[in-house]
Amino acid sequence: MKEILCNSAYFGVTVSLIGYGAGIMLKKKFKYAFLNPLLISIIFVIGVVMLCGVDYESYENSAQYLSYLLTPATVCLAVPLYQQMTLLKKNLAAVACGILAGVLASLGSVLLLAFLFGLEHDVYVTLLPKSITTAIGMGVSEELGGLVTITVAVIIVTGVIGNVIGEAVCKLFRIYEPIAKGLALGTSSHAIGTAKALEMGEVEGAMSSLAIAVAGLLTVIGASVFAGFY
């Protein structure tokens, strides 16, 4: 059985889709924020892979087809942004300042924690791109000499946490402005946070989509600068 699964071209895709589908069903039924479909699918896939004794390379090879959908899915995020273009132009200065503040807060928090916990430099630069999309974050981490595999894991965890607690944090700090909520989610938790922003509303989703791209570009520049601070 193990050999069959390892050699299967669609084992990874099938397990991933089943896990995500189960996560969606649980989220719809129980309405709890921590029942995030992506988080559920990650736990499900890890459990199945370990139970079946399938190595990671075999799973990755059979799940790579899902990665092909990442680019068109990201491009589709431009649609809600285009629909809110008038609102964006009207609040351009506030939007720019909000994204810049979010990027600086992300990089600054990693720098502070590195000092507090005495992290090695390679671990420090590994964490710097934690809040940007995986495609950009991997390149930043590799360029700075970080551990790319850990960077990917950290980016996913950051996104899931943002998706789970993002709305609650906005309510806690009484942030009701749709533009502010969208920018916060997109800047701090990239595409996974944007999925939550789209659930919250069209404006939130559009602003979050914009934040992903702009925050990614700013982090590429900012991470190079912050890497020299520690």
From TrEMBL:
Domain of life: Bacteria
The keyword Membrane belongs to this UniProt entry's keyword annotation: yes
UniProt keywords, alphabetically: Membrane, Transmembrane, Transmembrane helix
Recorded topology in the membrane: Multi-pass membrane protein
Cellular localization per UniProt: Membrane
Keyword Oxidoreductase: no
TM ranges: 7-26, 38-56, 62-82, 94-119, 144-165, 210-229
PANTHER family the UniProt entry points to: PLASTIDAL GLYCOLATE_GLYCERATE TRANSLOCATOR 1, CHLOROPLASTIC, PUTATIVE SEROTONIN TRANSPORTER
Protein name: LrgB family protein
UniProt organism field: Hominisplanchenecus faecis
